[in-house]
Amino acid sequence: MKxxxxxxxxxxxxxxxxxxxxxxxxxxxxxxxPISLGEFRFFTFDLFGAIMWGLLAIIYIWLVRSLWNLKAQxxxxxxxITTINVxxxxxxxxxxxxxxxxxxxxxxxxxxxxxxxxxxxxxxFGVVDEPMPGQR
Length: 136
Known about the structure:
Helices cover 68% and strands 4% of the residues. Strand 1 (35-37) and strand 2 form a beta hairpin. It is mainly alpha-helical.
C-alpha cells in the first residue's frame, strides 16, 4: 500500500468540491435550483446542459475515488480535465462574462493544476519527469 501524501488528499478534496459544483449546475439546468447573477435570480431548463453537467459530476466522483486510491490514470485525467476547464474559463471571459463570476472556477482549477504538478504528488502516482534530450 502506497502512502498518500497530503497533496493527493487535497487533490481528492478539491475534485470532490468540483463534483458538488457540477451536481449543483445539473440541478440548475433541470430547473430544480435557481441561478443567481448578482441581484437577479432565475430558473432555466436545458436538458443537454443537465446531461453534460451530470456526466461531469460522475467523472469528478470517479476522479475522487481514483485519486484517493493513487491510480495514475486518475492523476492524468485530472490534469487533462483541469487544463480544459482553465482554457474554457478564459474563453468565457473573452465572451464577456464578468471576472467575478469566473474567478472562483479559475482559482479552483488553477489550484488543482498546481497541486497536480508538484513533485511529491507526481511521485505518489508514479509519474516520473524525463530529462530533456541533452540534459542529465
